Fold:
Amino acid sequence: MRKKLFELYPEPIPTFDLILPAVRDWLDAYRGSLNDFLSNEDDWLLVNRDLNGRARLILPERIKESEQRKLWDSLASNLMQRLGKHAYPQNDEILFETNREQALQGATSYLVDGFTNVWIVDRLATEANWARIAPETESVPRIVFFSIKGGVGRSTALAATAWSLAQEGKRVLVLDLDLESPGLSSALLPPERQPMYGITDWLVEDLVDNGDVVFESMVATSNLSHDGEIHVVPAHGADHGEYIAKLGRVWMPKLRADGTREAWSSRLHRLLRHLEDRIQPDVVLIDSRSGIDEIASACITELGAKLILLFSLEGEQTWNGYRMLFEQWQSAGVAQQIRERLQVVGAIVPELDRVGYLAGLREHSYEIFVDTLYDEIAPIKKGEVGPGPDGAWQVGDLSEGWSFDEADDTAPHHPWGVNWHRSFAGLRSLRGRLAAIDAQEVDSVFGALIQGVSNAVDWRETS
Ligand SMILES: Nc1ncnc2c1ncn2[C@@H]1O[C@H](COP(=O)(O)OP(=O)(O)OP(=O)(O)O)[C@@H](O)[C@H]1O
Ligand SMILES: [Mg+2]
Structure:
């Protein structure tokens, strides 16, 4: 396992990465007093890390004038001493707020392990929220195509999956959410079929309550499949208009008449529900942006996806990227809410030594799943007998948890391979290619992916 900064250096200078370890040390050192002070159900403590990366405490207003105040002041200054430049100055170490919701103001927060009412609050300059995971939607299954690096064949694979599911008679809704480098819709729609508007137009019009005007003209049907339907919502319309000026505004939250704020990702979610109501698809395929970015964050954590495909090319860049993401879920305590929906896809598996390549991919993928998302395996299986830590024979009482063997082909780390194929190299030909291709060829390249997606969707429910 990777060594952490504070394990490598015995007396580290407090930098950003040491804020949380310092907070945890402080919480552990004063656990008893803190639990006493916070013994009522309506007590709470927030450790707030602000936009500049300075930390301080937020406590209920009533403590301000109470007898406890002195003790909290000394606890707070003890924490500040551990934080160096990341501390708040004296007299500003505690902020008092009437209630917790008000103090949060929609920021990311998570409960600290071992406490029932201590939260870490993290305020970011972006709208991305990687630590709040929306539950899976109960209506139409949504499948997100994501990759940590770009240019790995994600959009091509999505187009092929849409085509294949439609060939089987399914009604497929495809969303191009790669707003900053759109391209999927041109792979599925010839120029004369492009709709007048796209997702960017709706997000901008919605800010001035004008979304309905573009809604009816932002979906087109692809003529690629014979039996089912592919409905495509592009990033922009046939005439992209002032695309950059619009793109710079899609992230805007909307202020409602009652003064509440709707984050851009909630607006996107509202659009998606509206589209699903109108089109009644069997499945929604979403081309997310690559990398750790705001759109990707919305697609992965906030749209209630059933399946999140993690396109992966073998290499350190891929695995370092996924590790960052998984560690964030682990430390925010949300790993359990998302891990069962993840699936690694081996992107553009080279022709030469496919088996060896996929084995390497699987090995590295397994490493990070084990380190971050899988439960630790019980040393002795539940109900079975084996030697315990002291050498004496014991009956296992821990359940096995959520974990898989490296070779288990049903595991999320076990890559579904998409094969490199000459005919899919070169984006321009994709539409023509899908128009002329036979199912067998698509199957030989994308079969594992298409089968996997198909298995993940309960068609009886949707049809
Ligand atoms: N299975 C495949 N075999 C060979 N080449 C492929 C395959 N899939 C995609 N490609 C090629 O790889 C390039 C990138 O594909 P694509 O645009 O689908 O990737 P992407 O991950 O969506 O990229 P971006 O991050 O830019 O959106 C294209 O030139 C495409 O033709
Ligand atoms: Mg793409």
Observations:
- The radius of gyration is 25 Å.
- Residues 154-155, 178, 183, 287 surround magnesium ion (ligand 2) (CB under 6 Å).
